Amino acid sequence: MSSFSLKIMSSSTLAIAALLLWVSMLRGSTAQLDANFYNTTCPNVLSIVQQVISNASQTDIRIGASLIRLHFHDCFVDGCDGSILLDNSSTIQTEKDAAPNVNSTRGFDVVDNIKTALENSCPGVVSCADILAIAAQESVVLAGGPSWTVLLGRRDSTTTNLTGANTDIPAPSENLTTLIAKFSAVGLDTTDLVSLSGAHTFGRAQCKNFINRLYNFSSTGSPDPSLNSTYLATLQQLCPQGGNGSVLADLDPTTPDGFDNNYYSNLESNEGLLQSDQELFSTSGAVTISIVSNFSSNQSAFFASFAQSMINMGNISPLTGSQQGEIRLDCKLVNGGSSYIYESTYDLVSSS
Ligand code: HEM
Predict the structure, then answer these.
(1) Pocket test for ligand 1, best of 53, 76, 200 (most atoms within 8 A of CB)
(2) Cα–Cα distance for residue pair 273/235, rounded to 1 Å
(3) Where is the signal peptide (predicted)?
(4) Does the structure show a pLDDT above 90 at 339?
(5) For the chain, how many structural domains are there in total?
């Protein structure tokens, strides 16, 4: 072999080695989530979370539904990073003020209780983003739904995205095309959309989020034609025109607090509460119809799909590795942040 070809070989070997090093560095900074993440640092994390939720559910049957929704609204805005939990401060514009969240999302006090319990057992270890992922799973199990292995190791954001919370979270009056697009934007497919919508097998919704279907659907002056007429009458009685928009209705009129596949049989009998629910079955020719029918006739298929889709949702852009994010000590505050909301002009002037 000539010295020339030896030279070529060694420089290409070097290039390959550099490339491998670069790829391994990249992988290192985007570490994968891991079911065993807290095995040594907080081995009882799951049972601690479960205990707090179980206690809270004694006085608030709806708490599990509210907690899984927090995980969903967290993950859809720049990934599952606990950003939804941050309160207003001098540096933070809270996502709690976004349209899908304001006067609607709940359960923050229970998240704080979970955090306190965890800080007592394993201080500074478990992120608020992971608390939401675990709480979602424990809530589903508590209501009789499937269990799955929650992947862990998310870190908490030090920022929020109020605009993102207003635009990225799907709205109840959106059509199927928009729902599919919003799920696709975060890497979730049509099956994920149908199975995750099955979380509406428990919990409540306020009249204001579906009243447009009851009296003047799409400015037609008539109710949504895809609403079962008996169900329509019941809902009209609960939510009269000009009445209190925050009155609550069961998302699943059949088994309001249990986690089962009745959500899908409700859709088949035109008893989906939100337009976004009924769209999955009533949009003519939609690919979602056969998925609804499958889940309606086969609860095991729904449970298996739901579990996988929850893992998929929990994988949306987590912050991992030591370079990004932090482990918040208080889920409402970035570490070192202050809890005051607005400093008045007087305070600013007088302290300068
Ligand atoms: C497909 C798009 C979705 C839309 C348009 C939507 C919309 C809504 C709306 C409007 C409410 C009622 C809020 C209120 O009236 O205060 C609600 C409640 C709820 N949502 Fe969704 N949602 C969607 C997907 C999901 C997903 C993916 C999950 C979880 C995996 C979920 C879980 C829940 C739960 C459990 C409740 C009841 C919460 C409670 O009782 O506090 N939703 N949703």
Answers:
(1) 200
(2) 9
(3) 1-31
(4) no
(5) 1
